[in-house]
Amino acid sequence: MPEPAPIPMSATLAADEALARRRRAGERVLSMAGGEIGLPVLPVLRERLAAAAAENAYGPVAGSPALRTAVAGYWERRGLAVDPGLVVAGPGSKSLLFALLLAIGGDVVVPVPSWVSYAAQARLAGARPIPVPIRPGQGGVPDPDRLREAVVDARAAGQDPRVVVVTVPDNPTGTVASAATVRRLADTARELDLVIVSDEIYGDLVYDSSEPAVSPALHAPERTVVTTGLTKNLALGGWRTGVARLPDSEPGRALHTRLVAVASQIWSSPPAPVQTAAAYAFGEPPEVTERIAASRRLHEKVVRAVAAHFAAAGAKAAPVAATCYLYPDFEPLREHLAQVHGVHDGDALAGLFSERYGVGVLPASAFGEPGRPLRIRAATSHFYGTTDERRTAALEAADPLALPWIRTAVDRVGEVLADLTGADVPALVPHS
Amino acid sequence: MPEPAPIPMSATLAADEALARRRRAGERVLSMAGGEIGLPVLPVLRERLAAAAAENAYGPVAGSPALRTAVAGYWERRGLAVDPGLVVAGPGSKSLLFALLLAIGGDVVVPVPSWVSYAAQARLAGARPIPVPIRPGQGGVPDPDRLREAVVDARAAGQDPRVVVVTVPDNPTGTVASAATVRRLADTARELDLVIVSDEIYGDLVYDSSEPAVSPALHAPERTVVTTGLTKNLALGGWRTGVARLPDSEPGRALHTRLVAVASQIWSSPPAPVQTAAAYAFGEPPEVTERIAASRRLHEKVVRAVAAHFAAAGAKAAPVAATCYLYPDFEPLREHLAQVHGVHDGDALAGLFSERYGVGVLPASAFGEPGRPLRIRAATSHFYGTTDERRTAALEAADPLALPWIRTAVDRVGEVLADLTGADVPALVPHS
């Protein structure tokens, strides 16, 4: 059997699996690598899934009418009204993103840094990823000026860029691109005739409700595909449900037809019982919105406490405004890390966190960062407890940092950073 | 937005959706197009899924250890013992087949006729499908001599065939390739250094238990990947669960690594609650094996009754030995069809069934047949009733053909064929 080019395993999933193995082997580990949300299924959704257990028909490729109608309502409440006929559900937004790349064809512009799978998916789809850096604090959106340059250059070189992927709010930086940046991105995409695929899976996890993330679909509705799911806001990653909102335009409808055709050949339909429970969730009855709000508050408190430790240790980062991620830059500590630990880049830094301290984080290179930046991504979504009881307590606590298991995890980050940097253990988080 | 090459919608799923629309519009329709199994979820599996509704973690990309261990046992009981570490679960065997094509790379030999999605998937994966005809009655396995010729020619022409897909038992023909054919296929694949991907989703639906389907994995264990799922034997298509068995060889383990990497980038993991219920099913406790046996008996009785109508009408077909499919050839009626109906090929014949009689069938062209064969594929899996009560009664009936709703559907096929061919309405099925 001939051996084709290597395909990288998803860095987040690989790191999580490696850490789970070490934990089972009895090691003391702290997982900050993958962004899986460690919170229980909301009871009403558990009941809805259980009640749908007799559903075994495929149903429509694009998802059940009930699900698509509920999803259209979800988007309408966010200023993105859409015909349910232009909604496509799939077994996770990851699958939808890949199917979109196949359906659109051509090469793919990805932000730097960006989620581990965009570039890998582009390569699997036979495309070349075209990396374009973000501007500081504007995570997930390629700098519009550099986007223009890169696309013009790529076309001159014979490449065929047709789509730009953006992440609003952003993974890995935890920032939210400003309305102005999103508008400029939309204008530039129109000028370059690019489809925008806007991954908005963290849309419900912006801490400040007075400054929600702005979708490029507001500014370039004719060419923006929006994707989301229930993996982050409701911790339902293991249920595998994602949705896409196609543009209400002639090319948008043509893309819809192609996307459904790809879906019919690759996955047939999303899991039927999950569709029924997901339709209930996307309808956003009060218990669902309350759960999402509680999760958001929990992420914010824990992320900010951990961010304070990184800041105290001397790492730089744009203020986190959403998600459960930090993306600290240890550049100010470069000399110390080199002299004391022999660490010269993000990969070695992530290795140090893992080998010396049992702390799983991901290096900047996993997010497509070139060169040798001393950056890592850390997620706090595994801090909430290992049992449903603890996780529920974390959601319900007025001060989750006072819960001993969360306190221990956050303190551990402080200890590790103090040891790493040679500083005293900081005590920035007020004990209550 | 530039418009890339068209992607065909899955013919089976498209036909089912079109027929469902006509039924909702009040038309009298009989669906024989898609092969979805119209039977209820076995109660114990419904209970297992309901009990697993709190499971929301991704778990390992390849599926939970419990599921992979259960699947290894399922294969061991069929003479295909395997390390659970070489089992990969996915959201349907369709997704696994596609991921395998991506992971193997190169061009893909497909049998003619064969399932609608193999060639479409090969094209989506950037490969060229290389069609190789089957020998009569040996459905799903390319004629080994013609396979050798085609691969030698393709390589001489600069193509890169690396894999041959086979279907044992077969869709669309409902036949099972003989042990001798499978052995020759395996030998030829070894000679040509091709991976064999053996789609065995109908493996539990061979009517004669004394002559089970023979897997190429028995003859070429070092290079055969086997896929299956619970879609056909337990009617769980809507649950989306499939599994693959990788070869226990050095290239097999390398392919396993690549397959899991592709899975990690495209779908993360199969739906968690479904995995738990599927693990129970693959463990095959008595109620599961009894249900599978009852389904098999039901398919056999109904398919044979319908096949008798086609035979009486003058269509030819190899005897059906498995599945719920018929693949009748109307060549003996070519003159009549041309003169009376203006029908000259399978597409027009399927159109006539649909437009004039409201009977959904698929033309041979959907299965890759070139030329103008007067063949169609008909599935009987929608005949068992539209309610769980009727479907359960169908499973439990000693003589399902005596149930009025099944009788009506089977009789309707006879009426349609009589009208189509100008013959008297046959009454081959004994009324009880």
Automatic annotation (TrEMBL), chains A, B:
SUPFAM superfamilies: PLP-dependent transferases. It holds the Pfam family Aminotran_1_2. The keyword Methyltransferase does not apply. Keywords: Aminotransferase, Pyridoxal phosphate, Transferase. The keyword Transferase applies. InterPro entries: Aminotransferase_I/II_large, AspAT/PAT-like, PyrdxlP-dep_Trfase, PyrdxlP-dep_Trfase_major, PyrdxlP-dep_Trfase_small. Its EC number is 2.6.1.1. Its cofactor is pyridoxal 5'-phosphate. GO terms for molecular function: L-aspartate:2-oxoglutarate aminotransferase activity. Residues 49-379 form the Aminotransferase class I/classII large domain. Belongs to the class-I pyridoxal-phosphate-dependent aminotransferase family. This is Aspartate aminotransferase. It comes from Streptomyces clavifer.
